[in-house]
Design goal:
Length: about 425
């Protein structure tokens, strides 16, 4: 099956949905969640949670075999807005940072090292932005996010998060190296998910080699060789690479019974004004080491294409343009990957990843979150934690340094939406 069919709202997925839901919940209860007779911190389950899970459970399995089920419903993502971050990382509720894709030569010889020393302004990655830009976007677009029917909920969404966090969830059943920490806060019926840096990731960031630092620049330099600011000009590789700048799409979609609202950075769009509307006109840019041996090809399929597929499938970005570079950072070839064809490309690979496992795990994790994070309070964080070869566990933190919903957001969301407020 071509999994992009599931994006098509008219596909058979719609009809199969209720049967799906039943099957999924049974599976979640019986196999992927361990039952514990002595819970330690599963407190005060809501009525609906108590009804759906008769046993108290507090871990979630990530084993692949539990998620080899039918592909869950994933609605075609719809762009409901966008925002831009400028060279100083300032937020704008518009598309001023949109760039246009200019197709390069198939063998372009782009020098990705050019400008690393003298024309590079790197974003300060010590600043943890958490969900802040998304919260700004939500406040600026409150009216179009309100539930259609009167509700105690403020937003027509079950989950608000970054696309990058969802990518991590999709690849979890296949990840063997890096664990994650995801903080969840339930506020007025919506679950906000924000990543917390793990100790291992922090150490890695501190101990990066000079070579690694430079290679991180290469991806941005490739963008400069292939993108323009307007539809009429050509790329300008003589300029400064400033990684503060970003254009982000905000999309709404649904994974089984989870309504999702998330944002992801988009590299550029098709410059043809007759191209399909967003997100179908968007292009994701990547660089990767050139492939010289069968072993390298196999690794590329098994690891890289999994990450590329997951990241672009989520917001419905249909194309990934890859620049393959040599050891010296020279792009020797360029290839376009159609996201809908990636899963068939890898089918010949022995023991390879499966899109259905990725999507079912993500779906079951979100169900798990809904059952665990019962207390609706912006000062409470449910911290979900995962290490490779382990189950997902969680801990609860009240008024801790993990809290990430800003006071300005809570204040504005709870006052102005109140009909008595003037
Ligand atoms: O952990 C994250 N993903 C966080 C992202 C934490 C806090 C903030 N952000 C925000 C920033 O506002 C950024 O503009 O991330 C935005 C991008 O979010 P995303 O699309 O959800 O992230 P992801 O899919 O992981 O990465 C997309 C691109 C990357 O391109 P490649 O081709 O390497 O995947 O966003 C960039 C990077 O260029 N990027 C980041 N930019 C700023 N902060 C970050 C980050 N932490 N991670 C990746
Ligand atoms: Ca990219």
């Amino acid at each position: 099956m071509d999994h992009h069919q599931s994006h098509n709202p008219s596909s058979s997925n719609h009809q199969h949905q209720s049967a799906h839901k039943r099957e999924r919940n049974d599976n979640w209860r019986s196999s992927s969640v361990k039952k514990l007779s002595k819970p330690n911190h599963y407190q005060n389950p809501s009525e609906s949670a108590a009804r759906q899970i008769p046993v108290t459970s507090h871990t979630l399995s990530t084993r692949r075999e539990h998620f080899e089920k039918d592909f869950p419903l994933y609605k075609q993502p719809v762009e409901i807005g966008c925002f831009s971050l400028d060279s100083e990382r300032r937020f704008y509720n518009d598309n001023r940072q949109m760039r246009y894709y200019v197709e390069p030569d198939r063998n372009p010889n782009f020098d990705l090292r050019d400008g690393y020393r003298d024309r590079y302004r790197k974003r300060d990655d010590g600043v943890k932005e958490k969900l802040d830009h998304m919260l700004h976007w939500i406040l600026a677009n409150r009216l179009k996010l309100q539930p259609s029917a009167p509700s105690t909920r403020l937003l027509h969404a079950d989950f608000v998060t970054w696309r990058g966090h969802l990518t991590k969830l999709l690849t979890t059943p296949y990840e063997t190296r890096e664990g994650w920490l995801l903080a969840v806060t339930r506020f007025r019926g919506t679950f906000y998910i924000s990543e917390v840096e793990t100790e291992a990731a922090r150490r890695e960031q501190e101990n990066r080699t000079e070579r690694h630092e430079e290679m991180m620049y290469w991806g941005y330099k490739f963008e400069q060789y292939t993108c323009t600011d307007d539809t009429h000009s050509l790329p300008d590789p003589s300029g400064v690479v400033n990684t503060n700048e970003a254009f982000c799409t905000v999309v709404q979609t649904r994974l089984a019974d989870h309504k999702l609202l998330f944002s992801g950075e988009v590299d550029c769009r098709d410059k043809d004004p007759d191209a399909p509307p967003p997100p179908s006109c968007y292009v994701e840019l990547k660089t990767s080491a050139e492939i010289c041996t069968p072993k390298q090809r196999s690794n590329f399929h098994r690891f890289k294409l999994l990450k590329w597929w997951a990241q672009s499938f989520l917001p419905g970005v249909p194309r990934v343009v890859a620049g393959f570079r040599d050891e010296e950072g020279v792009v020797v070839s360029v290839e376009t990957f159609h996201v809908s064809k990636i899963s068939s490309l890898i089918r010949n690979e022995h023991n390879c990843w499966k899109p259905t496992v990725c999507m079912n795990f993500c779906c079951d994790f979100l169900t798990f979150v809904k059952h665990v994070a019962v207390e609706d309070d912006p000062d409470v964080v449910y911290l979900f934690s995962w290490d490779p070869r382990r189950d997902v566990t969680y801990s609860i933190h009240r008024n801790s340094h993990y809290s990430f919903l800003r006071h300005w957001y809570i204040k504005e969301m709870t006052s102005e939406g109140d009909p008595d407020h003037h």
